Amino acid sequence: MDTVLKEKINLGISACMYGCKVRYNKKGWNMSELFGRDQTSFIWHPVCPESLSGMGIPRSPIRVIGESGRAVLEGNAKIKNREGKDVTDMLIKGCNASIEALERANVFAFVYMEGSPSCGVYRTTLKNNRMGKPPGVFGAMLLDRDFFLIPANDLQSPVRRWDWKRRLYAFAWAKEVDINSKDDLFQFWHIVKFLCQEIDEKTAREIGKRLAELPKGFDKESAETLRHEVMMILRQPSSLEKIKNRLWKHYMYFKRKTGVELENVMEPTDMRNMNHIADELMLMEKTSFSTEVLFGAAPILYRGR
Ligand code: SF4
């Protein structure tokens, strides 16, 4: 199985996080720049549900009146602006227009602005001690469609950015790769299992057990269920501790296998800053690829055509 992505990933993003000044107060930030050279691995699709709703820029800020953005979609809550005007219909139309544009472009991953009553997923307000009524209206649509969701703020940390990128590549690969035989299925699992074990050891163990007990023959339906389970695991972030431990474990294995020493890679307990850890991860990724040793923590790479 080829573990190199050659097609660019279509990546959706809240337009205000792509440098467009579309927030209610005419503000916007460019978070996509934080990907550095990796920006070119993606075709970017900025959308702004509130602008597409026809509310304009600048506009009066809006909030959820009721339980959550999902309740708004179900007709059980409202969206009102600061003056108390009901803009529920307008916002739903803007969200529908945004989701249609993303689906037309085959977008399955989205960088969202957390803390917005529209794009927010776990918070719908930016105020520190209030979580709002999550998810936001557009956030609920993205969740309901199983999008691979990336909080824009996480892109500021080089290690989190690396974590999102390697899982997104693996997710894109897992979504498309052909699984037409039992051999394909075992190979598929062999490629993603180390990453799945790092993120969710319990579920990964259950999958491994089920695979070992498979009856004779190939059942396409169970293979597709397994593909879906893997994709759901890959949507979850890992932690710094797990990332450092896996890096060291792989480095020990790599050194034994190739005899190559990499001075930059440090033990999990060694003190160093986030930029250094991200550099170690990228070095390990690059060296493993050039020596053809599978780096289980980042099994899929993008190399373009
Ligand atoms: S958070 Fe979403 S709706 Fe709000 S300005 Fe940004 S893109 Fe537009």
Question: In words, what does this structure look like?
Answer:
The chain has about 300 residues and is an alpha/beta fold. The chain has three domains: about 5-155, no CATH class; about 160-235; about 240-300, no CATH class. The protein is about 45% helix and about 10% strand. The chain contains ten helices and eight strands. The strands form three sheets. It has a four-stranded parallel β-sheet, sandwiched between helices. It has a two-stranded parallel sheet with strand order 1-8. Strands 4-5 form a two-stranded antiparallel sheet. Strand 6, helix 4 and strand 7 form a beta-alpha-beta unit. Helix 5 packs antiparallel against helix 8. The two termini are about 15 Å apart. The model has no long low-confidence stretch (mean pLDDT about 95). Iron/sulfur cluster (SF4) binds near residues 22, 48, 116 and 119. Iron/sulfur cluster binds near residues 50 and 116. Pfam families: 2-thiour_desulf. InterPro entries: 2-thiour_desulf (IPR007553).
Helix content: 40-55%
What's the shape? Answer: globular
The counted number of beta strands is 8
Mean pLDDT: 95
Query: What is the string of SSEs from the N terminus onward?
Result: EEEHEHEHEHEHHHHHHE
Briefly note the structural class of the backbone.
alpha/beta
Count the DSSP helices: 10
CA(first)-CA(last) distance = 17 Å
Based on CA atoms alone, the radius of gyration comes out at: 21 Å
Task: Report strand %.
Answer: 5-15%
* Sheet with most strands: strand arrangement: 3-2-6-7
> What's the story with the biggest beta sheet?
4 strands, parallel
What compounds are bound to the protein? iron/sulfur cluster
Low-confidence runs: none
**Count of all domains:** 3
